[in-house]
């Protein structure tokens, strides 16, 4: 497995691989890898001849009061995990390498689909994500790129960008990997105190409650959301705030009001103490 911090080197290697006729799958990450990331890598391994993983805590997708400085990091452990699942190349740039001082002036922004949900509470976040993903696409020349469905809005935004900007890349979403008690795996779970960790599965339970009621025939979006919110408020004992809890159309993430008709998804962001957790569940299987 080759590791490089250099943009020039990763791009040269990727172009070499393409010239030799190999297909490439990219798995972009911010490191502190968990089973969810490893699942993306295994899927990538099955799909393409060569797998490139990027590990980069992207400063431009964090707001001024967010957790950029405290974001968990473990490069040595991450590299071992990548080697363990047969990754070919790991790209670990520094912020200066990707955004050279005073030169960097370009960004990529997707409009409508970034406005609600996480975009509403994290202004500039998706612009930071699409800008870095665009750079990673150009640097690693992938045929396939893998993203987790936990960040469902991010996946939809990246699909939109890929289509709008005609990248010849197939975007593949991979289902959420959960702990046994239902908590969606996330690097940020490392921030949770013992009590918060005990409370956290209530988020997934609440989404399941809405889905079960939907399957039993309750299609009124307001009632479904109320049931889910009440479950969170009842079950979580530590300080907690629901940042958003919404029902949206699964394809374009437009918010649903009134009766749910067609493929829909319930999405939430909950602040549990200082930790912001997101989760989602499609109402239809
Ligand atoms: O989902 C993430 O880890 C990040 O948002 C991504 C896609 C690697 C871009 O920095």
3D structure, described in words:
The chain is α/β, with parallel strands linked by helices and 285 residues long. It folds into 2 domains: 2-174, Rossmann fold (3-Layer(aba) Sandwich); 187-283, 2-Layer Sandwich (Pantoate--beta-alanine Ligase, Chain: A,domain 2), CATH 3.30.1300. The protein has 10 helices and 9 strands. Strands 1-4-3-2-5-6 form a 6-stranded parallel β-sheet, with helices on both faces. Strands 7-8-9 form a 3-stranded antiparallel β-sheet, covered by helices on one side. Helix 6 packs across helix 7 and helix 9 (201-215) packs antiparallel against helix 10 (221-235). The longest helix has 16 residues, at 125-140. The radius of gyration is 19 Å and the shape is globular. The structure holds pantoate. Pantoate binds at residues 28-30, 58, 61, 129, 132-133, 151, 154.
Name of the CATH class of the largest domain:
Alpha Beta
- Provide the CATH superfamily of the largest domain: HUPs
Strand arrangement within the widest β-sheet reads 1-4-3-2-5-6
**Over the alpha carbons, how many angstroms does the gyration radius reach?**
19 Å
- Which CATH architecture of the largest domain is right? 3-Layer(aba) Sandwich
Please estimate the helix content.
25-40%
- Note the total helix count: 10
Give a quick summary of the entry.
With 285 residues, the protein is α/β, with parallel strands linked by helices.
Top keywords for this entry?
2 domains, alpha/beta, Pantoate--beta-alanine Ligase, Chain: A,domain 2, Rossmann fold, 3-stranded antiparallel sheet, binds pantoate, globular
